[in-house]
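pasting for ref
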Amino acid sequence: HAHVSTRHKFEGHQPEDMVRFFAMVAAEHPLAFESLVVLDHGRTIFAAAKAYQSRSTLFGTEIIEPYICFSTGVDRATNVWCELVLPNCMNAFPNFINGRSALRFTHHKKLRFLDLMERFSMEGTTTYQADISAMAQRYLDTAERRRYFSRILWDNRATLYQVKMAGENAPRTAVEMSIEKFRKHNDHIDELEHWNNNAPGQLQDCRQGNVWGAFNAVLFWTDHAKRSNVHEQHSRKNSILQGPLNAIKKSALRSAQALAA
């Protein structure tokens, strides 16, 4: 019984479309409905259901559970996507590995369910297993791992440090950012190093000293550990799902794929 906005009108897509979508998917894939979140003071709804029969295990210990996600809102498009969750460490990462964006339907028209179902499909295991295996086989020494973390932070410098400098290379000196911001940048690298060694799930052999472990350290930092200026819980959730924290995770994925290629 989530309370959506009563002050704003849902146009085209309606909250009950979410129920219809999951009912249609459940006819083909057994689901366990787990999450319903109302964001933006009732303007956006997000829901997720676990496709529990598609759960898989890699390396003997790495459990991977696919979730089907649906979000819609006032004056906002409807998005549908698959998200994989690692219960060993509580991490979640939207559009994992395949890099494709979610199915998106403009809110100006009614949601066409036949079109949605024709385009929607559960991701097979072979796609992400190959990339995870490549990440697990690409080992990093401490210097390489810190450069990986620095690359991700620099990609998101405007959000993290309010820096709008051009250039692809991460900063090498405080002069390039200011002493305070450069110190913050290095503190973030140290935090990521800490979670690389201490986050839940990091003691598994498949994450020791490699890109897969470093990638998961970033995911844990963004989803669970990073301090935020966002005080309201619903705003932090929104950031993780579709805001600045989500952008950091996507940067981490792109850089991890490049290192493991």
